[in-house]
Specification:
The complex is a heterodimer of chains A (about 350) and B (about 180).
Chain A: H1 2-19, E1 24-38, E2 44-59, E3 62-71, E4 81-94, E5 97-105, H2 128-132, E6 138-150, E7 153-162, E8 191-201, E9 204-214, E10 222-234, E11 237-248, E12 257-269, H3 271-277, E13 285-296, E14 304-317, E15 320-332, E16 339-350
Antiparallel strand pairs in A: 1-2, 1-16, 2-3, 3-4, 4-5, 5-6, 6-7, 7-8, 8-9, 9-10, 10-11, 11-12, 12-13, 13-14, 14-15, 15-16
Chain B: E1 6-7, E2 15-16, H1 20-27, E3 33-40, H2 43-53, E4 61-69, E5 72-83, E6 88-96, E7 101-109, H3 120-123, H4 148-179
Antiparallel strand pairs in B: 2-7, 3-4, 4-5, 5-6, 6-7
Helix pairs in contact in B: 2-4
Classes of the chains: A mainly beta (about 350), B alpha+beta (about 180).
């Protein structure tokens, strides 16, 4: 019933927009369907995401932007969930100063910002982006962002006050279970999160991100995350790396420090060959991807998981991608010393 | 083809960076005179251009500008409106008499993200390219992360500009030859 109501509401809103005059609006999104074949486990298709993106420029300086995600069909009886990933209003004073309020995708690192399935080149995200920087990480925020150029260098920044991560940090799941509610804050302390990036030339970006806020119910102990990332692109080759470290004050039974990161190399190949084979396609391309990543969920005890991912994907057009990859997770934990091997595939479309 | 789910046309998304006179002044600082003509591609023109481009291209009316210094033709410019993710991007490409890209400017950008394609650091990678270059993202053109479709639109549009200018001049020379 909840699904029916939400779809009906969406259609009625869209219908009214078709005849409404005034603000310009866009409606799009992305979807993906995944296949997981893990050694020793049942293979499965996963209808992971349908994400609807709606934006409205209600004034020259005021933009509403949103993303509503239906995961696993959205039916909670079927492990599904419907959630707002972002819903904010931007009040643009200038390119260098934009005030943003609402639910934001927290500006931490590269993957969290560019997390859309049709943008990513692999089915799964790095472990770093699951347990250390818990993508997709959203929070209710008030703050500013902007960009400015100095000579040929492009600078971007974001800085927000948010409710912040809570005391859900675990040894198994890292920071992932500490993602905040949009309704309550487990303490009165507001957290700060910010990101600064510089792009000295086209295709080269270095960035740093920082988060700090109390995580316990009393608001006395701080969780901080510091991250750095770099992206380099030249012609058919791309190189991406991220690293972040987590510190918890007075963590008790929890680890006091965690870290994680990855390096990823991509190469776009066979454009000319594919263009000859599929002349009706504008810009078909195959991308080869290799990534090594790790997380250490308790640096004092070295609770480490390493992940190697090697794969390829085919894009008949920019926004449609067919992905396949081999993934190997090596657990070096006090509770687990095993290796998981899987072949993952997915199809993702941006629309 | 680019994905296009739903978009309402409106002036509100428009970010205007240059008017046409400002763009012409910027592209042709040494010109003593700039002529303007509205041109219409024929079906034969479009077929020839698409064959050279390697992908579909829209026709329609467009403006061709010719810059002169002391009555000598020095360069061309063509104004294009090419579809981005939702809305057309209006840009002008300066092409030499040898059909080489000399400059480019984005006049109007209408998407909510990706306006970085207007910046010199993106556009200058096209300068000195001619029609023999592929103009393909991740091959000889670097796109902008988060603005891939707009990057592709500008890239393919600039190659189209070269071919349109050449096609129009070839057509004009043929007509003059017939008249002779």
């Amino acid at each position: 019933m909840k699904q029916l109501l939400s779809v009906t509401l969406l259609l009625s809103v869209l219908g009214s927009m078709l005849v409404a005059a005034g603000p310009s609006r866009t409606f799009g999104g992305y979807m993906d369907t995944e296949f997981y074949g893990k050694e020793g486990d049942n293979s499965k298709f996963v209808a992971h995401r349908v994400v609807l993106d709606f934006a409205s420029q209600v004034d020259e300086r005021i933009l509403f932007n949103s993303e509503i995600e239906y995961e696993y069909g959205g039916d909670d009886g079927n492990d599904g969930v419907i959630k707002v990933e972002k819903a904010y209003v931007d009040f643009k004073l200038s390119d260098a100063l934009v005030q943003r309020s609402g639910i934001i995708v927290v500006p931490f690192g590269h993957v969290n910002e560019y997390h859309d399935s049709d943008v990513r080149d692999t089915t799964t995200r790095p472990l770093y982006a699951k347990k250390i920087v818990p993508t997709t990480w959203s929070d209710t925020a008030f703050g500013v962002h902007g960009e400015f150029d100095r000579n040929d260098t492009e600078f971007k920044y974001e800085a927000y006050l948010v409710n912040g991560l809570n005391d859900g940090v675990t040894l198994n799941n890292g920071v992932r279970s500490a993602r905040p509610s949009f309704k309550t804050d487990n303490n009165g302390d507001k957290a700060f999160v910010g990101r600064l990036s510089a792009s000295p030339k086209l295709g080269t970006v270095i960035g740093t991100s920082y988060y700090r806020g109390a995580y316990d119910d009393n608001g006395e102990n701080t969780l901080s995350i510091f991250g750095i990332d770099g992206f380099y692109k030249k012609g058919r080759y791309e190189f991406l790396a991220e690293y972040a470290t987590v510190s918890l004050e007075d963590s008790g039974d929890l680890p006091s420090a965690m870290n994680g990161g990855y390096v990823e190399v991509r190469s776009h190949v066979l454009q000319d060959f594919l263009k000859r084979q599929f002349s009706y396609l504008d810009r078909p391309v195959i991308t080869l991807v290799a990534r090594y990543g790790f997380v250490d969920l308790d640096t004092a005890a070295s609770e480490t998981i390493n992940r190697i991912t090697v794969g390829a994907n085919f894009r008949p057009i920019e926004s449609l991608v067919y992905k396949i990859e081999y993934q190997q997770d090596e657990y070096d934990l006090s509770s687990n010393n095993s290796t998981d091997k899987s072949v993952n595939m997915s199809v993702a479309l941006g629309f | 083809m680019v994905p296009q789910c739903f978009a309402e046309e409106s002036l509100l998304f428009e970010q205007r960076y240059f008017t046409v006179p400002e763009a012409l002044d910027t592209l042709f600082p040494d010109a003593t005179r700039v002529s303007s003509e509205s041109v219409q591609l024929t079906d034969a023109d479009i077929v020839a251009i698409e064959d050279a481009l390697g992908w579909d291209s829209s026709g329609g009316a467009m403006h061709l500008y010719k810059a002169y210094a002391s009555d000598e033709l020095i360069s061309y410019a063509i104004e294009l409106n090419e579809l981005g993710k939702y809305f057309p991007i209006t840009f002008m490409v300066k092409v030499s008499k040898e059909y080489v890209v000399e400059d480019a400017l984005v006049l109007v950008y209408r998407e909510k993200v990706g306006a970085s394609v207007r910046k010199r650091r993106f556009l200058k990678q096209f300068f000195s390219k001619d029609k023999t270059h592929p103009f393909m993202l991740n091959l000889d053109v670097d796109g902008i992360t988060g603005a891939t479709i707009s990057s592709a639109t500008i890239s393919s549009g600039i190659k189209k500009a070269i071919l349109v200018v050449e096609q129009l001049q070839v057509r004009q020379l043929k007509n003059e030859s017939v008249l002779d």
